[in-house]
Design a protein that fits this description.
It is built from 15 helices and 14 strands. The protein is α/β, with parallel strands linked by helices. The strands form 2 sheets. It has an 11-stranded mixed beta sheet, sandwiched between helices.
Length: about 500
Amino acid sequence: VRALERNGNMPKVATRYGVVAGRMDAASRVSSFKGIPFAAPPVGDRRWREPVPPTAWKGIRDGSQFGASCMQRVHGDMLPWTKEFLVQGRVSEDCLYLNVWTPRTQSSANLPVIVFVHGGGFVEGSGSIAVYDGTRLASTGVVVVTINYRMGVFGFLAYPGLTAESRHHSSGNYGLLDQIAALRWVQGNIRNFGGDPRKVTVWGQSAGAMSVGALLASPPAKGLLQRAMADSGIGIASFPVPNLQTAEQAGVRFAADHHAQNLEQLRSIPAEHLLPSPENHSLGFGPIVDGWVLPQAPNAVNRGPGGSDVPVIAGNQANDRLLGAPPVRTLKQFDEVAQRRFGPMAEEFERLYTVGADDGAQVQRVMEESDRDRERVSLFLWAKARLQHHKSPVYTYFFTRGIPWPQHPEFGAFHTGELPYFFRNLQALDRPWQPADFEVSRIASGYLKAFAAAGDPNAAGLPEWPAVKPTAPETMDLGEKMQPMPLADRARYEFWVKYFNSPASRNAPLF
């Protein structure tokens, strides 16, 4: 602490809990403050409880290093996600930390604030991942915040004993409560970092985008965000959100599998023993309708007048469909997928998406076309439903620029591949970048900054991005063209609308 106090070159900011010293990037003049606690460590008896404020500290806290990531299995890398997209550091239950990047630390700066919620299927991820570094995005004139939140069983276990001890008579959704606690910290502290608490954009990707959908629907989150952006996680089709009773039953089975007969025994199990096995690395736990954080499923709230009525950007990657989708390379496989997904509508689907020959490349191309059309229409219908009861605009996009990768051209615009562009972090990846990539990054990050500032991505020097109109089935192509594009041709669009209004759509994949 004394060394920090003597070092006048380190920017220092006072929070409600103590002073934190950061580091200034010499090239950009952006200051970073890492590993700031926004809640007390959720350890011991605090495991599976709603977060509480952190303990105040004396002296000056060193903000030059990230805090630990929340409990998860660390992969290192797994294609298409190279190490820059995944957690590399240590993990711990003591993980409720956030990070701030700011170009100005004056409380009068009133810069727009972007709070990023990471993805990872609610089982992995962190605010400290390399492609989420906020330096270059902050240099455009915004304050960037990345956060950690509890995941997996630590973040979303529902259990009768937890429900009984809760003053809200609920359990689960601790990860969402962590996100809400981080937003409360932002409201109470971000002004001293140069941010305007009246201009907070919550931006999430994948599970983070699903979290944004949940936060938009959550009463405890109301008033903590003024804009929202969701990358690859929102649509009229969504993952099922179980109710409290169903989630509690899953929690009882989990406890039995770990030889725990009560809550005390569950809390005594070492954290590493609660992680899923490498062979069973699946969603497992996620948001639930608990009656408090989520009174209803997010899409049900979106279809009505409830939740936060704020401007929204939502979009998908052109190759999101590759996430967990088995390859379809023969006519037989194509027909099997059609029958399974569309049932009585399968014949109409195969008439609209015709495969002329039993050729692997052609089969894959037609399946790709159908999946992309479905994703675009699903998101449009989500936006259309929202606009029936909310006054704030919705902007949708389809990100088509793939990261140049000669060794793996099959991945294209893969799930998460848009983030280096929005964060302006192309240099974080060793790729043969082209001038078009830097232009896409400039425009995409420009849209994000403009949206954070005014709730509208349009600004001088950027191609016009129209808001969603229920009568105009189109979306914004974020790629080399940067212009509105149709969702699908008329006959295909009408097929997907009919599909999403039919019982068959219960089998629709999110991507």
